[in-house]
Amino acid sequence: MKRDLKFEWxxxxxxxxxxxxxxxxxxxxxxxxxxxFKPVIGHRFxxxxxxxPGWCGIVDCEVLELVPNKKLSYSWVSGPKxxxxxIKTVVTWKLIPEKDSTRLILEHTGFEGFRAWMTSxxxxxxxxxxxxxxxxxxxxxxxxx
Length: 145
Hints:
By secondary structure, the protein is α+β, with helices and mostly antiparallel strands. The chain is built from three helices and seven strands, in the order βααββββββα.
């Protein structure tokens, strides 16, 4: 079993504003998790949250690709602390300018095997609802003309 996730949102903000929210560690903490992220290729970082059954509360990551205001990609390894039960995936964010807005595309790929396939539904639900709303709330508000 293999499954990939893909979500798209259109924000009335510039790519620079969306990028800032996507790559600023303090803002990431507000819309996702506590972290030690730095926008540097090869930087290893962690997301941290409260542990739950089957999940140690830590996501180990490494920045794989970084094109300012256009693309950010990092590995995402989660599950138990170590071992073959860990789920290894990749998160990719793409920013596409559209008139006075930015289309943000999230692809979370590589869910292989039954456990990972099931986890993809939990993560997908979170990306689609809570995370998307929290992210949008941190973007600068646009004044009506």
